[in-house]
Design goal:
The chain is an alpha+beta fold. It contains 4 helices and 12 strands. The chain has one domain: Beta-clip-like (Beta Complex), CATH 2.170.270.10. The protein is 17% helix and 27% strand. The strands form 5 sheets. It has a 3-stranded antiparallel sheet with strand order 3-9-8, with no helix packed on it. Strands 4-6-5 form a 3-stranded antiparallel sheet. It has a two-stranded antiparallel ribbon with strand order 1-2. The longest helix has 10 residues, at 48-57. It is globular, with a radius of gyration of 15 Å. The termini are far apart. Mean pLDDT is 91; it is low at 1-6.
Length: 172
């Protein structure tokens, strides 16, 4: 088992960072009910320019950043959020509450399940980044792209669940 920073893991032993299908990921140690806040995605807020610079250092640094608002990103390097992986059939989503990014369960999550979210929900139309997907979901899209690439039914579902931030919708 891999460990994220001890001060970054939620209290109560609810989550761990473990080996998963695609490297390391966040795994539930206890059952998490649908609608529950799983954890905060902590880190430092940086400009898009800083994130572009990360690609020259190590592409994983740029890939791990979360779109925070129209012009900035949250860099979770060294924190639990660094291990938040994508799935085309996620069991959680990112919700922005004030200045905080929270990971919220959109389905019940059983102990031992990897906690995943759909990266496309944080990629505005102006985001050009894409990823060849290897999530293993039955409905895998094979490539992760920005919000405009989502099937209409998926986007409607995500909006109904409240896991697409307003600034991402505004980018359409």
């Amino acid at each position: 088992m891999y460990k994220a920073r001890i001060d970054d893991l939620p209290r109560g032993g609810k989550l761990a960072v473990k080996a998963v299908r695609n490297g390391r990921g966040i795994v539930a140690l206890k059952a998490i009910r649908k609608g529950a806040t799983i954890c905060e995605i902590a880190g430092k807020v940086v400009s898009a320019e800083v994130v572009w610079g990360y690609w020259d250092i190590d592409e994983r640094l740029g890939e791990n950043c979360f779109r925070y608002d129209a012009d900035n990103y949250l860099d979770p390097n060294g924190k639990l959020g660094q291990y938040a992986n994508h799935s085309c059939d996620p069991n959680s989503g990112i919700v922005k509450k004030g200045r905080r990014l929270l990971l919220k369960a959109i389905t019940a999550i059983a102990p031992g399940d990897e906690v995943t979210h759909d990266y496309s929900t944080l990629l505005g139309v102006d985001d050009v980044w894409k990823l060849r997907c290897n999530c293993g979901a039955e409905n895998c899209r094979r490539t992760v792209r920005n919000i405009a690439s989502l099937p209409d039914t998926t986007l409607k579902k995500y909006r109904r669940l409240g896991i697409v931030p307003d600034f991402i919708i505004a980018s359409k």
